[in-house]
Amino acid sequence: MTYCKRCVYPQITVNLNLDEDGICSSCRSFEKFEKLTPGYWVERKKRFEKIIKETSQKNTSNYDCIIPVSGGKDSYFQAHKIATEYGLKPLLVTYHGNNYLPEGDYDRDRMRHVFNADHLVFGPSVEVLKKLNRLCFRKMGDMNWHAHCGISTYAIQIAVKFNIPLIIWGEVIWDTAGMFDPEDFVEFSARLRHEHALRGYEWSDLINDPRDPLTEKDLLWAKYPSDEEIIKVGVRGLYIGNFFKWDPNAHTKLVKKLYGWKESKKPFERTYRRMSNLDDRYENGLHDYLKYLKFGYGRASDHASKDIRLGYMNRKTGVEMVKKYDHVIPSDLYYWLNYVGMKEKEFWKIANSFRDPRVWRKNKKGEWEKDNIWDEEK
Amino acid sequence: MKKKRLIPIVLLRNGWVVQSKGFHEYKNLGNPFMSVKRLSEWASDELIYLDITRDGEYDLRRDDLRDPNRHDILEIIEDVSKMACMPITFGGRIRTIQDIEKRLFRGADKISINTQALREPSFITNAAKEFGAQCIVVSIDAKLENGKYIVMAEGGKVPTKYEASEWAKIVENYGAGEILINSIDRDGKKSGFEIPLLCSVADAVHIPVIGCGGAGAWEHFGEVFDETRVDAVAAANIFQHVDQSVHLAKKYLYDHNYPVRPPEFFEVS
Amino acid sequence: MTTNVCILDYGSGNVRSVYNMMSQIVSQVTISNAAQDVRSATHLILPGVGAFGASMEKIQKKLPLKVLKEEIFTKKKPFLGICVGMQVLAETGHEFGEHKGLGWIEGTVRKLNSGNLPLPHMGWNEVTIQKQSPILKRFPHNPDFYFVHSYVFEVKHDKDIVGTTLYHENFCSVLFRGNIFGVQFHPEKSQKVGKILLENFIHI
To answer: Catalytic center at which residues (chain C) (predicted)?
Structure first.
């Protein structure tokens, strides 16, 4: 396995590309953002303001935009920009997948206390969620598919229903691979959602499973609107990270200070960060562990790579973080097994079937092993 | 009245659809066919699908996706053809008559050759005789050097002795049915098309010419139609950045009275 | 009788796209040149790209012409010729020398007079509906279809011409006589309107 020379991503990182110099596409995209002078950011801010003005002119509803929020640090930053700095009236929309940590509940519910915004929280029936947890784990090794779907679908349904033409997203969440450059000004699209959030699966692939039967009516929230419906309202999904410099550590400081945002009381088991993913206990836990089982890298690799680029840590420390955290089996495994009523033996049987042979092999003792970044020097 | 064509280009590299920036930086965007499905749903006029793989395998490096991970270009062509109810030109790594035959059999309507045409111009004639001239597109990459547009070979790296308009006439005489002219200088820059290059080629031949390289805004397409005689404009990266991109581009052109098909949507089963 | 489309395979051109689009419309579609498939089909399609002469040669070699004629002229089965598949219906073709066509519709195939416009005629162009016919129902005013050709069928009798297209000259883009249809353009490449046309054909 080869690794990026700058950050700690392995070559197999989802959607990643290593160039001739051994630098990954994610580092290259970041490089381009870093090269943007203050002058460029001023231009980008103007471009954002131009779009706000244009959409408000054809907006017939009472909300200036939708902000899909989980209640996390990014949500607060987005709401801060739109509601506080620009004085617009957003409709906050949350998909509630029933996996919130207590701090996450607090931060989510607090939003309409600290921002002048209305807040719509939507959650599918828990019985449906449990079925999706089990079904998607069996089918694609991902119990959190429902969340990727809910987050990337529900807000757009609401935009269409309420005639709100603008949706303000934060970071290009699945662009950890550096698919796009600053000058692309990429926007949210059905293809990105379908391929990268949902792995090519849609609600129609998940109905009538014999073990966890679901009907069309169970998945109404999962249906993406048609091109015609979207064009009729003129819905656009902008990523605020394209217009304002994106720095999660700085955002956390800001939203803690201004709005009393709370990070996790306990450290996470699989990463050194405390301010990510309070809306879903499995994002840093079991769901991320499955990523490790599949591709041999986890959240610590993601966070360390980002922080190396931002200058908060050097590569040596990053490698140490990967060594310390990537392989850890999280205790929320047992929480999840209890939640969905699955036995541990069945869990491991299914989980191990997703180990990618490009990464994993069995040694003479029959144990799973792989190349590791800290063995690079050897 | 015949319409001008707006043609999306999809670039394939090692089994990934990619963005190409300046012929040297590549960003993986997704699987080989999903982009094609969307372009089809936006009723694109045509599609150009170029395999720019230099070496190595076709592999999405994971097998947990809903759709099969294809390792063979011919399987990819077949998947893509099913998604597109519009004419498709396939290009890239075509060296022999059999290469062309295999691609046409899998669903390609036209094929595009670049390197092979430079190495062996008579290949154009043989291919046109076998499959019909309308099937053979010759793709030309050109770079401005000392005031002249020089044809570049080997993926835009090695200069040839030909000027673009000169080579265009030569390939027309050899029997090409269409020309795709690409400006290397403008590739990925988003600053507009290389108008003088497109003019020089379109004015030199009697076969249809597609102009490419530099699209950054819908207005740039309009400029090409205003200032050159090309039959079509093509672009790759720009159509991957926003949803319903082709529909929006067509709407811009149609609303500004350019001779294009009206924007619409099409259901791909 | 359930619809059963037979796409005639004589080794010419891209039958795959016709097949792909037809499969979205009906469930029973075959690509074949066997006499029994021609007999059991309810609708027949002759696709075609490439040169007139070369296509005629392959047609004569590979297709059961006697059976075809029977099914078309005696049994009156609906028949659709696409592009070169329409041109070969002519008496003669003048591409790369003079060649005999099937002679089912009077007229000759000759080079399109495109003036200063580029050849081949490649892209989307309007079909002006001159007369009504079963395959041209349900169309918006002057639909755009995808054309790619350098030769045209100069149909002798006006009554056979139901659609024309302008590309420097006005040429016949849709012909129709009884149960025989010919289209110069490619419906299988023409998205929405192409699908409507093929659906119309199936309902005959």
So the answer is: 83, 186, 188
